[in-house]
Protein backbone atom coordinates (compact mmCIF):
# COMPACT_ATOMS: atom_id res chain seq x y z
CA UNK A 1 0.00 0.00 0.00
CA UNK A 2 1.35 3.41 -0.92
CA UNK A 3 1.70 5.94 1.86
CA UNK A 4 -0.41 9.08 1.55
CA UNK A 5 1.46 11.97 0.03
CA UNK A 6 3.01 14.49 2.40
CA UNK A 7 1.64 18.08 2.35
CA UNK A 8 3.31 20.98 4.04
CA UNK A 9 1.38 24.06 5.26
CA UNK A 10 1.90 25.93 2.03
CA UNK A 11 0.38 23.04 0.04
CA UNK A 12 -2.69 23.08 2.29
CA UNK A 13 -3.36 26.72 1.33
CA UNK A 14 -3.20 26.03 -2.42
CA UNK A 15 -6.43 26.06 -4.46
CA UNK A 16 -7.78 22.65 -5.50
CA UNK A 17 -9.80 22.20 -8.70
CA UNK A 18 -12.16 19.28 -9.37
CA UNK A 19 -13.26 17.88 -12.71
CA UNK A 20 -15.88 15.26 -13.65
CA UNK A 21 -13.46 12.34 -13.01
CA UNK A 22 -13.30 13.34 -9.34
CA UNK A 23 -17.10 12.92 -8.78
CA UNK A 24 -17.75 9.71 -6.82
CA UNK A 25 -21.55 9.83 -6.47
CA UNK A 26 -24.34 12.34 -7.12
CA UNK A 27 -27.02 12.92 -4.46
CA UNK A 28 -30.32 14.59 -5.36
CA UNK A 29 -31.41 17.24 -2.81
CA UNK A 30 -34.64 19.21 -2.45
CA UNK A 31 -34.51 22.87 -1.52
CA UNK A 32 -35.90 21.90 1.88
CA UNK A 33 -32.74 19.86 2.55
CA UNK A 34 -30.42 22.79 1.98
CA UNK A 35 -28.83 24.37 5.05
CA UNK A 36 -30.05 27.77 6.20
CA UNK A 37 -28.23 30.68 4.64
CA UNK A 38 -26.79 33.49 6.70
CA UNK A 39 -29.08 35.95 4.91
CA UNK A 40 -32.56 35.56 6.40
CA UNK A 41 -34.36 37.86 3.96
CA UNK A 42 -36.02 34.90 2.24
CA UNK A 43 -37.29 33.62 5.57
CA UNK A 44 -38.64 37.07 6.37
CA UNK A 45 -40.58 37.09 3.11
CA UNK A 46 -42.03 33.67 3.85
CA UNK A 47 -43.10 34.90 7.28
CA UNK A 48 -44.82 37.93 5.76
CA UNK A 49 -48.49 38.01 4.81
CA UNK A 50 -48.84 41.05 2.54
CA UNK A 51 -50.44 40.72 -0.90
CA UNK A 52 -48.53 43.62 -2.47
CA UNK A 53 -45.33 45.44 -1.52
CA UNK A 54 -44.39 48.78 -3.07
CA UNK A 55 -40.63 49.38 -3.11
CA UNK A 56 -39.99 52.30 -5.49
CA UNK A 57 -39.09 54.79 -2.74
CA UNK A 58 -35.49 55.23 -1.58
CA UNK A 59 -36.23 56.90 1.76
CA UNK A 60 -38.47 56.32 4.76
CA UNK A 61 -42.21 56.66 4.15
CA UNK A 62 -44.12 59.33 6.04
CA UNK A 63 -47.63 59.03 4.70
CA UNK A 64 -50.02 56.72 2.84
CA UNK A 65 -53.55 57.37 1.62
CA UNK A 66 -56.02 55.19 -0.28
CA UNK A 67 -58.37 56.64 -2.85
CA UNK A 68 -61.97 56.91 -1.57
CA UNK A 69 -63.34 55.77 -4.93
CA UNK A 70 -60.75 53.46 -6.55
CA UNK A 71 -60.16 50.39 -4.36
CA UNK A 72 -56.73 49.72 -5.92
CA UNK A 73 -55.30 53.25 -6.02
CA UNK A 74 -52.80 54.27 -3.30
CA UNK A 75 -50.46 57.23 -2.83
CA UNK A 76 -47.31 57.29 -0.68
CA UNK A 77 -44.96 60.10 0.35
CA UNK A 78 -41.35 59.72 1.42
CA UNK A 79 -38.17 61.29 2.70
CA UNK A 80 -36.74 60.85 -0.80
CA UNK A 81 -38.71 64.01 -1.82
CA UNK A 82 -41.06 61.96 -3.97
CA UNK A 83 -44.64 60.84 -3.95
CA UNK A 84 -45.96 57.88 -5.92
CA UNK A 85 -49.41 56.85 -7.09
CA UNK A 86 -49.57 53.07 -7.47
CA UNK A 87 -52.14 50.29 -7.59
CA UNK A 88 -52.55 47.24 -5.40
CA UNK A 89 -51.93 44.10 -7.45
CA UNK A 90 -50.50 46.05 -10.42
CA UNK A 91 -46.77 46.07 -9.83
CA UNK A 92 -46.05 47.40 -13.32
CA UNK A 93 -47.96 50.68 -12.81
CA UNK A 94 -46.79 53.74 -10.88
CA UNK A 95 -46.92 57.50 -11.38
CA UNK A 96 -44.39 59.79 -9.71
CA UNK A 97 -45.59 63.07 -8.21
CA UNK A 98 -42.70 65.20 -9.41
CA UNK A 99 -41.82 68.71 -8.31
CA UNK A 100 -41.29 68.53 -4.55
CA UNK A 101 -37.83 69.46 -3.30
CA UNK A 102 -38.25 68.29 0.30
CA UNK A 103 -39.74 65.21 1.98
CA UNK A 104 -43.37 64.56 1.02
CA UNK A 105 -44.97 64.45 4.44
CA UNK A 106 -48.74 64.73 3.95
CA UNK A 107 -51.13 63.35 1.32
CA UNK A 108 -54.92 63.50 1.01
CA UNK A 109 -57.53 62.63 -1.63
CA UNK A 110 -60.62 64.78 -2.14
CA UNK A 111 -63.96 63.21 -1.14
CA UNK A 112 -64.69 62.13 -4.75
CA UNK A 113 -61.17 60.87 -5.47
CA UNK A 114 -60.74 63.29 -8.37
CA UNK A 115 -58.04 65.42 -6.77
CA UNK A 116 -55.02 64.73 -4.60
CA UNK A 117 -53.14 67.17 -2.38
CA UNK A 118 -49.49 66.66 -1.46
CA UNK A 119 -47.34 68.68 0.94
CA UNK A 120 -43.58 68.69 1.44
CA UNK A 121 -41.66 69.80 4.52
CA UNK A 122 -40.72 73.10 2.86
CA UNK A 123 -44.42 74.10 2.90
CA UNK A 124 -45.05 73.58 -0.82
CA UNK A 125 -48.61 72.44 -1.56
CA UNK A 126 -49.46 70.76 -4.86
CA UNK A 127 -52.87 69.56 -6.06
CA UNK A 128 -53.03 66.82 -8.69
CA UNK A 129 -55.77 66.06 -11.19
CA UNK A 130 -56.19 62.32 -10.56
CA UNK A 131 -59.23 61.90 -12.80
CA UNK A 132 -57.59 63.58 -15.79
CA UNK A 133 -54.02 64.13 -16.94
CA UNK A 134 -52.41 63.84 -13.47
CA UNK A 135 -51.14 67.40 -13.77
CA UNK A 136 -49.90 69.00 -10.54
CA UNK A 137 -50.40 72.69 -9.64
CA UNK A 138 -48.58 74.71 -6.98
CA UNK A 139 -50.74 76.63 -4.50
CA UNK A 140 -49.93 79.89 -2.78
CA UNK A 141 -49.57 79.02 0.89
CA UNK A 142 -48.35 80.04 4.35
CA UNK A 143 -44.79 81.11 4.99
CA UNK A 144 -44.22 78.24 7.43
CA UNK A 145 -44.44 74.48 7.20
CA UNK A 146 -47.82 72.79 6.78
CA UNK A 147 -48.97 70.73 9.78
CA UNK A 148 -52.04 69.05 8.21
CA UNK A 149 -54.50 69.01 5.30
CA UNK A 150 -58.27 68.37 5.24
CA UNK A 151 -60.70 68.31 2.32
CA UNK A 152 -64.25 69.61 2.46
CA UNK A 153 -66.42 66.44 2.74
CA UNK A 154 -68.73 67.78 0.03
CA UNK A 155 -66.56 69.71 -2.41
CA UNK A 156 -63.18 70.78 -3.69
CA UNK A 157 -62.17 73.08 -0.85
CA UNK A 158 -58.88 72.37 0.87
CA UNK A 159 -58.02 73.41 4.43
CA UNK A 160 -54.46 73.55 5.81
CA UNK A 161 -52.94 74.50 9.16
CA UNK A 162 -49.49 76.03 9.43
CA UNK A 163 -46.72 76.37 11.93
CA UNK A 164 -46.87 80.17 11.33
CA UNK A 165 -50.13 80.19 13.42
CA UNK A 166 -52.49 80.53 10.40
CA UNK A 167 -55.12 78.40 8.61
CA UNK A 168 -55.64 78.63 4.86
CA UNK A 169 -58.56 77.53 2.65
CA UNK A 170 -58.56 77.23 -1.16
CA UNK A 171 -60.96 76.40 -3.96
CA UNK A 172 -58.85 73.77 -5.72
CA UNK A 173 -60.85 73.87 -8.98
CA UNK A 174 -59.45 77.30 -9.81
CA UNK A 175 -56.55 77.45 -7.30
CA UNK A 176 -58.15 80.49 -5.63
CA UNK A 177 -57.37 81.36 -2.02
CA UNK A 178 -60.74 81.72 -0.28
CA UNK A 179 -59.90 82.60 3.31
CA UNK A 180 -57.07 82.97 5.80
CA UNK A 181 -58.00 82.34 9.44
CA UNK A 182 -55.91 84.29 11.96
CA UNK A 183 -56.21 84.02 15.73
CA UNK A 184 -54.09 81.23 17.13
CA UNK A 185 -50.96 82.15 19.06
CA UNK A 186 -48.86 79.15 18.05
CA UNK A 187 -48.54 76.38 15.46
CA UNK A 188 -51.95 75.07 14.29
CA UNK A 189 -51.57 71.33 14.87
CA UNK A 190 -55.00 69.98 13.83
CA UNK A 191 -58.28 70.96 12.23
CA UNK A 192 -61.24 69.87 10.16
CA UNK A 193 -64.59 70.72 8.65
CA UNK A 194 -67.69 69.41 10.42
CA UNK A 195 -68.28 65.80 9.25
CA UNK A 196 -70.88 66.59 6.56
CA UNK A 197 -69.64 70.09 5.80
CA UNK A 198 -72.56 71.80 7.54
CA UNK A 199 -73.67 72.53 11.08
CA UNK A 200 -77.39 71.96 10.32
CA UNK A 201 -78.63 75.11 12.09
CA UNK A 202 -76.68 77.98 10.49
CA UNK A 203 -76.13 79.17 6.94
CA UNK A 204 -72.36 78.91 7.23
CA UNK A 205 -70.12 75.93 7.74
CA UNK A 206 -68.13 75.19 10.87
CA UNK A 207 -64.36 74.74 10.92
CA UNK A 208 -62.63 73.54 14.09
CA UNK A 209 -58.89 73.91 14.77
CA UNK A 210 -56.48 73.15 17.62
CA UNK A 211 -53.12 74.70 18.36
CA UNK A 212 -49.95 74.47 20.42
CA UNK A 213 -51.27 77.59 22.19
CA UNK A 214 -53.60 75.15 24.05
CA UNK A 215 -56.77 76.55 22.49
CA UNK A 216 -59.51 75.04 20.37
CA UNK A 217 -61.17 77.51 17.99
CA UNK A 218 -64.48 77.37 16.09
CA UNK A 219 -64.58 79.41 12.88
CA UNK A 220 -67.23 80.84 10.55
CA UNK A 221 -66.06 79.56 7.17
CA UNK A 222 -67.65 82.48 5.28
CA UNK A 223 -66.41 85.40 7.37
CA UNK A 224 -63.16 83.80 8.54
CA UNK A 225 -63.93 84.98 12.07
CA UNK A 226 -63.48 82.88 15.22
CA UNK A 227 -66.83 82.41 16.97
CA UNK A 228 -65.71 80.38 20.01
CA UNK A 229 -62.43 79.79 21.83
CA UNK A 230 -61.93 76.92 24.28
CA UNK A 231 -58.90 77.33 26.52
CA UNK A 232 -57.04 74.08 27.25
CA UNK A 233 -55.43 72.84 30.43
CA UNK A 234 -52.34 71.40 28.76
CA UNK A 235 -49.44 72.65 26.69
CA UNK A 236 -50.90 71.28 23.47
CA UNK A 237 -54.37 70.74 22.06
CA UNK A 238 -55.05 67.07 21.33
CA UNK A 239 -55.39 65.95 17.72
CA UNK A 240 -59.10 65.34 18.31
CA UNK A 241 -61.37 66.40 21.15
CA UNK A 242 -60.99 63.56 23.66
CA UNK A 243 -61.97 63.67 27.33
CA UNK A 244 -59.10 64.39 29.73
CA UNK A 245 -59.58 60.89 31.15
CA UNK A 246 -58.19 59.51 27.88
CA UNK A 247 -55.06 61.62 28.21
CA UNK A 248 -54.61 60.63 31.84
CA UNK A 249 -54.87 56.93 30.93
CA UNK A 250 -51.57 57.04 29.02
CA UNK A 251 -48.15 57.28 30.63
CA UNK A 252 -46.30 58.45 27.51
CA UNK A 253 -46.98 60.61 24.46
CA UNK A 254 -50.24 60.09 22.55
CA UNK A 255 -49.43 59.47 18.88
CA UNK A 256 -52.78 58.76 17.25
CA UNK A 257 -56.55 59.14 17.76
CA UNK A 258 -59.31 57.77 15.56
CA UNK A 259 -63.09 57.55 15.74
CA UNK A 260 -65.04 54.45 14.69
CA UNK A 261 -67.48 54.89 11.77
CA UNK A 262 -70.39 55.08 14.21
CA UNK A 263 -68.71 57.95 16.04
CA UNK A 264 -69.58 56.50 19.46
CA UNK A 265 -66.21 54.79 20.00
CA UNK A 266 -62.67 56.11 19.72
CA UNK A 267 -59.22 54.54 19.81
CA UNK A 268 -56.20 56.30 21.31
CA UNK A 269 -52.65 54.99 20.87
CA UNK A 270 -49.39 56.02 22.48
CA UNK A 271 -45.73 55.32 23.07
CA UNK A 272 -46.64 53.57 26.34
CA UNK A 273 -47.46 50.51 24.19
CA UNK A 274 -51.20 50.92 24.70
CA UNK A 275 -54.18 51.28 22.41
CA UNK A 276 -57.21 52.20 24.51
CA UNK A 277 -60.77 51.85 23.16
CA UNK A 278 -63.15 54.50 24.51
CA UNK A 279 -66.93 54.71 24.77
CA UNK A 280 -67.34 58.38 23.82
CA UNK A 281 -70.99 58.65 24.85
CA UNK A 282 -70.26 57.55 28.42
CA UNK A 283 -66.61 58.72 28.57
CA UNK A 284 -65.48 55.29 29.74
CA UNK A 285 -62.66 53.02 28.53
CA UNK A 286 -63.94 49.77 27.00
CA UNK A 287 -60.59 48.01 27.00
CA UNK A 288 -56.83 48.30 26.67
CA UNK A 289 -54.91 46.61 23.86
CA UNK A 290 -51.37 45.88 25.07
CA UNK A 291 -48.51 46.01 22.54
CA UNK A 292 -44.86 44.97 22.52
CA UNK A 293 -43.78 48.47 21.47
CA UNK A 294 -45.14 51.98 20.98
CA UNK A 295 -48.30 52.58 18.91
CA UNK A 296 -47.58 55.13 16.18
CA UNK A 297 -50.74 55.11 14.02
CA UNK A 298 -54.17 53.50 13.74
CA UNK A 299 -57.09 52.99 11.36
CA UNK A 300 -60.62 51.69 11.93
CA UNK A 301 -61.47 48.89 9.50
CA UNK A 302 -65.18 49.07 10.29
CA UNK A 303 -67.45 49.23 13.31
CA UNK A 304 -65.82 46.31 15.16
CA UNK A 305 -62.14 46.13 14.24
CA UNK A 306 -59.28 48.61 14.53
CA UNK A 307 -55.72 48.30 13.21
CA UNK A 308 -52.64 49.63 14.98
CA UNK A 309 -49.23 50.35 13.47
CA UNK A 310 -46.28 49.95 15.81
CA UNK A 311 -42.66 50.90 16.28
CA UNK A 312 -41.74 47.20 16.08
CA UNK A 313 -42.74 47.16 12.39
CA UNK A 314 -45.89 45.10 12.86
CA UNK A 315 -49.53 45.87 12.19
CA UNK A 316 -52.04 44.36 14.60
CA UNK A 317 -55.79 43.92 14.17
CA UNK A 318 -57.93 44.21 17.30
CA UNK A 319 -61.50 43.23 18.12
CA UNK A 320 -62.69 46.49 19.68
CA UNK A 321 -65.40 44.68 21.65
CA UNK A 322 -63.11 42.22 23.42
CA UNK A 323 -59.78 44.04 23.19
CA UNK A 324 -58.12 40.91 21.79
CA UNK A 325 -55.53 40.85 19.01
CA UNK A 326 -57.07 38.75 16.23
CA UNK A 327 -54.22 38.97 13.70
CA UNK A 328 -50.65 40.24 13.39
CA UNK A 329 -49.61 41.44 9.94
CA UNK A 330 -45.92 41.20 9.03
CA UNK A 331 -43.95 42.63 6.14
CA UNK A 332 -41.88 45.51 7.49
CA UNK A 333 -38.50 45.65 9.17
CA UNK A 334 -38.93 49.03 10.87
CA UNK A 335 -41.55 51.31 12.46
CA UNK A 336 -44.96 51.86 10.86
CA UNK A 337 -45.66 55.56 10.22
CA UNK A 338 -49.08 55.59 8.57
CA UNK A 339 -52.10 53.37 7.81
CA UNK A 340 -54.95 53.70 5.32
CA UNK A 341 -57.94 51.53 4.31
CA UNK A 342 -58.99 50.95 0.70
CA UNK A 343 -62.33 52.21 -0.62
CA UNK A 344 -63.91 48.75 -0.54
CA UNK A 345 -62.39 47.97 2.88
CA UNK A 346 -60.69 44.85 1.46
CA UNK A 347 -57.14 46.16 1.98
CA UNK A 348 -55.15 47.87 4.69
CA UNK A 349 -52.02 49.67 3.48
CA UNK A 350 -49.09 50.49 5.76
CA UNK A 351 -46.16 52.88 5.25
CA UNK A 352 -42.89 52.25 7.07
CA UNK A 353 -39.55 53.77 7.98
CA UNK A 354 -38.03 50.86 6.03
CA UNK A 355 -38.98 52.65 2.79
CA UNK A 356 -41.76 50.29 1.70
CA UNK A 357 -45.55 50.14 1.74
CA UNK A 358 -47.45 46.87 2.21
CA UNK A 359 -51.04 46.02 1.32
CA UNK A 360 -52.75 43.40 3.48
CA UNK A 361 -56.10 41.68 2.95
CA UNK A 362 -58.55 42.60 5.73
CA UNK A 363 -61.93 41.88 4.14
CA UNK A 364 -62.84 39.53 7.02
CA UNK A 365 -62.31 42.26 9.64
CA UNK A 366 -64.95 44.98 9.31
Automatic annotation (TrEMBL):
The WD repeats are at 54-88, 97-131, 139-180, 181-229, 247-281, 288-328, 329-366
Q: Which UniProt keywords are present, listed alphabetically?
A: Repeat, WD repeat
Asked if the record carries the keyword Repeat, the reply is yes
Where, if anywhere, are coiled coils annotated?
none
Asked if the keyword Repeat belongs to this entry, the reply reads yes
Give the protein name, as stated in the record: Angio-associated migratory cell protein isoform B
The scientific name of the source species is Glycine soja
